Amino acid sequence: MNIALIGAGNVGWHLAQALQAGGHTVTAVYSRTAAPREELTRLLPQAQPISSLNLQSINAEVVLLAVPDAALAAVAAALQVKPGTLVAHTSGSQPLAILAAVAGARTGVFYPLQTFSKTKAVDFWQVPILLEATDDETLQQLQALAQSISNSAEAVASGARKQLHLAAVFACNFTNHLLGISRQLLQEASLPHHLLQPLIRETIAKAMQQHPYTVQTGPAVRHDQNVLDEHLYMLQRHPELQELYRLLTQSIQATAAAQ
Amino acid sequence: MNIALIGAGNVGWHLAQALQAGGHTVTAVYSRTAAPREELTRLLPQAQPISSLNLQSINAEVVLLAVPDAALAAVAAALQVKPGTLVAHTSGSQPLAILAAVAGARTGVFYPLQTFSKTKAVDFWQVPILLEATDDETLQQLQALAQSISNSAEAVASGARKQLHLAAVFACNFTNHLLGISRQLLQEASLPHHLLQPLIRETIAKAMQQHPYTVQTGPAVRHDQNVLDEHLYMLQRHPELQELYRLLTQSIQATAAAQ
Asked: Which of A182, A191, B200, B242 is 20–30 Å from A21 (CA)?
């Protein structure tokens, strides 16, 4: 397929390369500022960098929108495509209906459920792609596209996708932040961060095998008040971490009590 | 070495089997109630289950205490050993000095930095063991013991070990809880939990390679207020999760602002 990509951020960066590796042709890359589209099209021999959202003269049956959620409505309103073009966005949190503004297009969602950074390679075959479309034919087309770059493609409606995105914020964004806090605490004691890596690996391996609530360990679930008090005392120079510690402890205890 | 184990909970369970596999002999297992010591000694051919903390007639050069932190002071006060016995506790948060109460013993700390559940096997060779002792000879003895069951043994003083334990609560206990919340949110939308596994694996792999603060993604760090508001709205039936979401979002934003 000939595909135009709107957005050259973290998602667009990896998606474009996966599409190319999957045998598709990325014919154009749009970004608001010049540098990202120039940088990405250097990796895509047949793609031209474009600075306009009027794509009526671009050779593309599919247009994928990989722009920040907050920009999606404005981009959809400004986008112009040939009649019958398949336009899909890649957002976990935005509804399919946000693309209703694109005149003459068939619309869908093509959401790769993964965290992307330009600096780290991603095996796209392992990335679940969640799909939605206004009609069955469009859905089948998106399914074929997804299956050409990933082992896992599933139709998920907007409501469920939103809930999945919320769950992903807890599992990914918030978890990453806690790992960052833990690394900061090690740094403050001049301890090497590799010391905690086996523990982190085991925590995740265990949480994949069993429901995490059933394997919760640590001072909170044991109601070990001496340790809890001491930890809060140790965090006195970080009042915001103290509050986080207190709230997470309460939440663990409330969850255990409800089991 | 001949080793007596005080405590047959999650830590004692795995430690006893690692020591036996490392060529040592566990000669006795104490637990407060009968069932845990009976269960564990069935796996240790030369160990007797014991119900008294008077170990003066037990054949053991080393006594390892794997009891809950909250019980450690009372167990140390009640423990009686032959003069010169090496007594070490396995706690991340308790000071070496808590063992000063054990009359006639040389004392140390033997802290395996890992999360243990009886239901899940652990490769002890990958578990860092953090050591501390009142004198160099005792430290060397603990080092030899640790190196016979793990690839990673390091001397860490009480203060640094406490900070490490605090960091581990964030990296392990709190992270596990967030993964539990995420699984609960998937269940509420009847979504299969395997959908999030590639994302969780990638999040952790990335956090091991780079400082997590530098690879933070998601609506909080992007200040994507529409998504943040919607997520808070979606959590309205879980006010405690709403509060957690709000506080973690604030913490991510404050951290990013301080970078």
From this structure: B200
